[in-house]
């Protein structure tokens, strides 16, 4: 009888221990089934709390707590929290290029910009910047100063440009007193400057594009041109060396006859 009672007690203890172990393992198993692995959309189906964070596939079916890492849809009888990542639209800045402007099929020598603010007017700073050496490394010591010749949105004697367009034609009305000049393209809030050197002014037609000044909303083209400003370097224009005058044939004949007459006169005098 004692042996039977001992066996019964041992069986009861083992059964209780097995139940306890099973109960302890249940939450762990539920937790394992509820955690999403991978990247994608997470669907958490549970009777507990479902949280979807980040990017991940979380298919959790359990009676515990399900966490799906990702942009997830949490369907449960508890609380569902979804935290999604927000992608910011990066603001692309314009960068000037010598290919933005040409004259007579020749692109600019150098460019600077874009700069915020105004290039001309009471608050304009470009003329001061030029005189302080904005393009000093490109023009050398031959340029002593700069002068503003005109703007395309004002009456002037030197240039025209397709204002209110992001690209188009511009032109000089006549040759400039120097072979070095700067064209400034101004949009609503910014401007870029383009240096031209060694220009002989055989072709006064050119083209421009404001993509190197300020970008429009889509970032694929520039904003409309407000005006173009023309600055000329105060230096001598590239002139051809003076050509020596060659006497005309009639003058040479006259000189020859005069010389011959003098020789004859001397011979007669010596005789």
Which spans of ≥5 residues are poorly predicted at pLDDT below 50? 1-6, 19-91, 237-241
Radius of gyration: 44 Å
Taken together, the total number of domains comes to 2
What is the number of beta strands? Answer: 16
Strand content: 25-35%
| Estimated helix fraction | 10-25%
In the sheet with the most strands, the strands line up as 8-7-15-12-11
Describe the structure.
The chain is an alpha/beta fold and 271 residues long. The protein folds into 2 domains: 2-83, no CATH class; 98-233, no CATH class. The protein has helices at 2-34, 126-131, 136-139, 249-270, and strands at residues 43-46, 50-54, 60-62, 66-70, 73-76, 80-83, 101-103, 106-107, 110-116, 146-151, 159-161, 167-172, 181-186, 190-196, 205-209, 227-233. The strands form 4 sheets. It has a 5-stranded antiparallel β-sheet with strand order 8-7-15-12-11, with no helix packed on it. The protein has a 5-stranded antiparallel β-sheet with strand order 9-14-13-16-10. The chain has a 3-stranded parallel β-sheet with strand order 3-1-5. The radius of gyration is 44 Å and the shape is globular. Residues 1-6, 19-91 and 237-241 have low confidence and may be disordered.
